[in-house]
Amino acid sequence: MMFRLDRTVGKGQSHDEAANQSTYWKSKTVDERLIGSMYLNSVAYNFDINNPPRLDRTIFRTRKHKFR
């Protein structure tokens, strides 16, 4: 299956608009930035932000490393 970029979804920005966005997000606290990124993930992956999906722990393994 080939994936293609859907150019109708995004919005073009000028350099000034992009710089303003960068300045805006840098002025926010770490917690506010994480909330913003969680919102964008919920929109991108279509899940309720108040009820995110749980991590499937059957896929990941942990192991202890030997100390030298």
Q: Average the pLDDT over all residues and give the rounded result.
A: 84
Radius of gyration of CA atoms, rounded to a whole number: 18 Å
The total count of strands amounts to 0
Q: Structural class per helix/strand content? A: mainly alpha
User: What is the first-to-last residue Cα distance?
Assistant: 45 Å
Characterize the largest beta sheet: strand count, sense, and whether it forms a barrel.
Answer: none
- Give the overall form: extended
SS element count, helices: 2
Query: Uncertain runs with pLDDT below 50, 5 residues or more?
Result: none
Please write the string of helix (H) and strand (E) elements: HH
| Helix content percent band | 40-55%
Please report which band the strand proportion falls in: under 5%, 5-15%, 15-25%, 25-35%, 35-45% or over 45%: under 5%
